[in-house]
TrEMBL record:
Domain Prephenate dehydratase: 100-275
Name this polypeptide is given: Bifunctional chorismate mutase/prephenate dehydratase
Subcellular location: Cytoplasm
GO MF annotation terms: chorismate mutase activity; prephenate dehydratase activity
Keywords associated with the record: Amino-acid biosynthesis, Aromatic amino acid biosynthesis, Cytoplasm, Isomerase, Lyase, Multifunctional enzyme, Phenylalanine biosynthesis
InterPro entries documented for this protein: ACT-like_dom_sf, ACT_dom, Chor_mutase/pphenate_deHydtase, Chorismate_II_sf, CM_dom_sf, CM_II_prokaryot, G/b/e-P-prot_chorismate_mutase, Preph_deHydtase
Marked site positions, Essential for prephenate dehydratase activity: T268
Domain ACT: 287-364
Start and end residues of each Chorismate mutase domain: 8-100
Stated role: Catalyzes the Claisen rearrangement of chorismate to prephenate and the decarboxylation/dehydration of prephenate to phenylpyruvate.
Its EC number(s): 4.2.1.51, 5.4.99.5
Organism encoding this protein: Thiothrix nivea (strain ATCC 35100 / DSM 5205 / JP2)
């Protein structure tokens, strides 16, 4: 076969494949709009049942995503399928209701990335300057939900968030788990010569060994957020910043080294806060706030009803009560939903022992 025939055969093959892709896209387009019309009907049905109905249903979204992951045979990876379906659901939900979500800002932080990972791109977002401010925006009804960090696998719990639940009546409506990838970014490619590295203290801590090895001469300067670090690095060509990829385009920086975190499994968990009681999804977690007098054996008495009812505790944190010395609040996470028989029996027994037992929320376990 001559070369000319080869080339035209390839062209014919490519043209045929593109024709198939066009036909598939036409089908996908039709199906997407059919799905969107269904979602609009769902909204009318919900409103007919209850004029105050909630349109956002985290348990249903989690079920859809889990089902799609279990049906997926590739070649697209589950992570990509989840991302695509999140965006489809996000656009369908936007037809039912336009939502605004407050998050711990500024723009360009991991909390912004987590917010869009969970709610997709079809929501409006409001960056605010502190964790208490996220709670206030939701409490005042200026936004529908808020997103705040709760714990990092390297640095532990974010106590500001735990403390807010003591004062606030808001509930936990969801959790988001985000793999944190740290990047070195600066104005130019010759990053080896930078004299300063700006970042949030936690991000600096997460890259300690990488910095010791690759930038031992650079001063590490902790600042209020990774986005602020990127802003400072955009003003100083002797400086670099560490943060998530989303900060680089906002501040006109180049990513000169990616994935520089010391622990490749570095994950941050975020909570979605709102005033919604979420129905069971089949794979849920429940967060509890419990307080007790500081007497011998009091923690044991709190944990006994859980173990006796076979409830699996995934986390416990204690925080000193701010009002009474030597009294503690305990934050517990357990597997399951508050409507599950085992958890409701355990809660009943716990209420006999503890001064305060509050269910902060039952919500679907984060989908990766
Ligand atoms: O099933 C619903 O309740 C819907 O509103 C539909 C839908 C979807 O697009 O599938 C949209 C938003 C909800 O958060 C959950 C699911």
């Amino acid at each position: 076969m001559s070369n000319t025939t080869d080339v035209s055969a390839t062209h014919a093959g490519l043209a045929a494949l593109r024709e198939r892709i066009d036909a598939l896209d036409t089908q996908i387009l039709g199906l997407l709009n059919e799905r969107a019309r269904c979602a609009e009907e769902v909204a009318h049905t919900k409103l007919a049942e209850d004029p105050n109905a909630k349109f956002y249903r985290p348990e249903r979204e989690a079920q859809i995503l889990t089902r799609m992951q279990s049906l997926n045979n590739g070649p697209l990876r589950n992570e990509q399928i989840t991302h695509l379906f999140r965006e489809i659901i996000s656009s369908c939900l936007a037809l039912e209701e336009s939502m605004r979500i407050a998050y711990l800002g500024p723009a360009g932080t991991f909390t912004q990335e987590a917010t869009h990972k969970h709610f997709g791109q079809a929501v409006a977002t409001l960056p605010v300057e502190s964790i208490p401010q996220v709670f206030r925006e939701v409490e005042a009804g200026r936004v529908r939900y808020g997103v705040v960090p709760i714990e990092n696998s390297t640095d532990g719990v974010i106590t500001h968030t735990l403390d807010m639940f003591v004062q606030s009546n808001l509930r936990v409506c969801g959790e988001i788990s985000l793999r944190i990838h740290q990047n070195l970014m600066c104005q130019h490619a010759s990053w080896q010569s930078v004299q300063k590295v700006y970042s949030h203290a936690q991000s600096l801590a997460q890259c300690r060994f990488w910095l010791d090895k690759h930038l031992p001469q650079a001063e590490r300067i902790p600042v209020s957020s990774n986005a602020e670090a990127a802003r400072l690095a955009s003003l100083d060509d002797t400086a670099a910043a560490i943060g998530g990829i989303q900060a680089a385009p906002i501040y006109g920086l180049q990513i000169v080294h990616d994935n520089i975190e010391d622990n490749p499994n570095n994950t941050t968990r975020f909570l979605v806060i709102g005033d919604q009681v979420v129905s069971p999804s089949g794979n849920d977690r429940t967060s509890l706030l419990v307080s007790t007098r500081n007497q011998p054996g009091s923690l044991y008495k709190l944990l006994k009803p859980l173990s006796e009812n076979g409830v699996d505790m995934t986390r416990i944190e204690s925080r000193p009560s701010r009002t009474t010395n030597w009294e503690y609040f305990f934050f517990l996470d357990v597997r399951g939903h508050e409507q599950d028989a085992a958890i409701s029996k355990a809660l009943e027994a716990l209420r006999q022992e503890a001064e305060v037992v509050r269910v902060l929320g039952s919500y679907p376990v984060a989908i990766m």
